[in-house]
Amino acid sequence: MPDLLPEDRRVTKPANPLFARKSLELLLEEMKGDNRLRRVLGPVQLTSLGVGAIIGTGIFVLTGQAAHDKAGPALILSFVVSGIACIFAALCYAEFASMVPVAGSAYTYAYATMGELFAWIIGWDLVLEYTVVSATVSHGWSHYFQDFIGIFGIHVPKVLSIAPFDYDPSVGHFVLTGAWFDLPAMIVAGVVTVILVKGIRESAGFNTAMVIVKLAIVFLVIGVGAFYVNPENWKPFAPFGYAGVSLFGHTVLGQTDAGGHPLGMLAGAAIIFFAYIGFDSVSTHAEEAKRPQKDVPIGIVASLLLCTVLYIAVAAVLTGMVPYDRINIDAPVSDAFAQVGLPWIQLLVALGALAGITSVLLVMMLSQPRVLLAMARDGLIPQSFFGAVHERFRTPWKSTILTGIVVALLGGFLPLRMLAELTNIGTLLAFVIVCVAVLIMRVTHPEAARPFRAPGGLATPILGIALCLLLMMSLPVENWWRLLIWLAAGMLIYVFYGRHHSELRKRNGNRGQLP
Q1: What pLDDT shows up at residue 512?
Q2: What pTM, to 2 d.p., does this model score?
Q3: CATH fold of 42-507, please?
């Protein structure tokens, strides 16, 4: 670990204290404190966490919607495009995680390169991403669970089975469902919270078991389904074309549907991008990795590459087994086997889906408190609560419990459509900021130690920025409004609390710090 620079070399008065940055030396110094997390994760466990976060709702649900409504068999290429965009971002995550192996992920990276204000923005954005993804996944888990027990004739009472209201496209507004709340979604959030509070070793072990189960099911789907592929189902390969690009809700390239939304292979890529969310969560556990400089990059890149290959294979099998316009949107994989005369696999697929979605929920809810912990250590949110680490379990237990409560309430009372629409844009913004952070560090600190260096020079972060921005702009315009409202609320918290309690400002007497 390098020695710290003398104070007069580490501290400079910036033009605006809002852009005061943490130096790499200061970040490494903070790692020496006693209030650290336990280093127990190796490369296999980190890769398992990545796979656990990635494979779930995307492969078992979104493949049907994207193929049926947006891309047809060209969904295979949609996964390739989204995977390429994620690979550039993943390489940037891996480089920064090896340089700064502390909790916080993109939040910490932004603090070191763009300053406190941008760090707060991305930290608040990550709070939105992980919370909403967790609530969305708990909602999806509930429906798969109810489908699974329904096979045996067991049913959850209607008043406890879904959210109390939902959006009805046929009437264009929200309607009451007659239910009180989604009880299974709330229960699974509570169970996962208990597991997470107990410890990272137990959480990682539980996740690994779930990953093994769902990978076995995915390989079964690919292996068995390949024998039922009819190449004629891939014709036409791109019934909606290869485009589907929009700018803030206005289609500029490709076909549109009746509502004016873009269609085509690229439109499908923007939809199934949700399927890749999760690999970035590996970087939030850098402080719990045994050899973070080596193990975290391995976990990030290996999990993303493995999942990309599996996604492409499943998309090829699914669209080859069933014509794209006959794919079931709600349960595409299990229904495809039913259509080719193999209904017995439906039970196994349901089990795999439950395991897959459970592991996604665990990793998302595991990552959220780590981001809050990093923000609390910097004084931007109350340290006494969000910075508390359990003396025995060495986990951020208070913020984990709060996360569980919020996820349970959102999953129990808000409809799936409202939750899912908030997810992609926040994640893409995080990816863009990480790529920008790596680009800045390449220019301002070319001499800094990089145990892992993303290949391709400056082209890698630049391409990551361009592709993620392209996907962001292809999302419906209402997503931008929701993101702006969330960020505005976060700015109020920063203005009235965060900037007055910033540890960096206290350390430097409001002079700020530059690398």
Answers
A1: 41
A2: 0.77
A3: Amino acid/polyamine transporter I (1.20.1740)
